[in-house]
Amino acid sequence: MPDGIVIIPTYNEKENIGRIVKNVFSLQRNFHILVVDDNSPDGTAEIVKDLQKKFENRLFLLERREKSGLGTAYIAGFKWVLKREYKYIFQMDADFSHNPNDLIRLYNACKREGADVAIGSRYKTGVNVVNWPMSRVLLSWMASKYVRLITAMPVEDTTAGFVCYKRKVLERIHLDKIKFVGYAFQIEMKFKAYLAKFNIVEVPVIFTDRTRGASKMSGSIIWEAVFGVVKMKFYSVFNKMTI
């Protein structure tokens, strides 16, 4: 059994899920995959079930009743994983915005180089984003700068969704106390790891916008992050935040 598992949340990803699964399984390092599907009406879960016949005991599916936020999907996945013996837990998107080849680099950062949290960072060495309009690049870059300013985290890409956690990090963070379900979930997880004094390392990656399927980003998700960060920092200052 491998010591690493990749959690991939899905909602209407039929155009991508088969390709991403096969790509991860083609890597030189052996990983398992857990797909967390939020009752996709396009049949994503059915595609995964068909793939399970080929990748028996390597590909797993956790089906949820409804679409209830990226954060809750990951938390459900984390809880599933922590009942098993995996030591390195990854989160990544299904749409190839995160290059599966970089999983090995994140793994090595935690396994060999002492990181407790390894972030696939778009902004560690400049702005490494492909196929985004300039307005979205600026929004994302400024959001990360804003979060860094408010929280004082020494992290360039605070909103990154491509991450490897050592098991002990997820065991330390009280998953039931995570408050944010959208964009801000990524920030809250990093902030709690930072408050718990885990070693957070950024690994430069190139982020490529999806070419198939539709983005799940919305205005409400962005506003959750903008206002949520201030509240999160406030609670941490007055020791009201549970790690």
From TrEMBL:
One of its GO terms (cellular component) is membrane. Pfam families: Glycos_transf_2 (PF00535). Residues 6-172 form the Glycosyltransferase 2-like domain. One of its GO terms (molecular function) is dolichyl-phosphate beta-D-mannosyltransferase activity. Transmembrane segments: none annotated. It comes from Salinimicrobium catena. GO terms for biological process: glycolipid biosynthetic process. This is Dolichol-phosphate mannosyltransferase. Belongs to the glycosyltransferase 2 family. Keywords: Glycosyltransferase, Transferase. It comes from the Bacteria.
